[in-house]
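Both lines are quoted verbatim for reference:

——
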Amino acid sequence: MSATEASKTVWDDVDGYIEEQLIGPDLALDDALRASIEAGLPAIAVSPAQGKMLHLLARIHRARRILEIGTLGGYSTIWLARALPPDGRVETLELDAAYAAIAAENIERAGVADLVHIRVGPALDTLDELIEERVEPFDMVFIDADKPSTPEYFERALELIVPGGVIVSDNVVRGGGLADPDSDDAGALGMRRFHELLSRASASGRVDATSIQTVGVKGYDGFTLAIVSP
């Protein structure tokens, strides 16, 4: 076994221990993952530990309105919806209509359909529509869609979030590609642009942000947490 394989085994074991001790079995979430796999969706949803982190962040922030960019099979959507008060709302954006249909079924089975609205279509177009509609601002935004477009998603999110709102972006480290100036990976290049944008927004006082490296069942990656200035 290589050093990388050995590390991955340890990461998986630790995530498994955390899930056993702090999360436990959850029929609705397990069903959502199984249905997504059976439907052929890519296995790129957040891990259970990451899903609970999102859930806790939403609760800490007392979010009532959440915008999610990238629904996939609705796994993270369920975690976020469960953090909402009875009058809360998750607006979640998904490009693929077939994925959105699977997500809708998963969300319905989880009992949170009344709290979730799925919008189907290219996310940038939908975000521009939300801006044009002057929708009620969101308290929290979770960005987990195509990585090259993350900077553009972040720019739109800044127009749709309340002062003091929180923006979380997933998969920002790209296995270390974030720090590789010679990388030609589109996702890594997108995340470098995203961090350059974050740097400018931080310097101007518009946000306060940091990025954290993570390891686990999803491999080596990371997330960004940004708080919009009040």
Q: What stands out?
A: The radius of gyration is 17 Å. The domain at 3-228 is CATH 3.40.50.150 (Rossmann fold). The longest helix spans residues 3-23. The chain has one domain: 3-228.
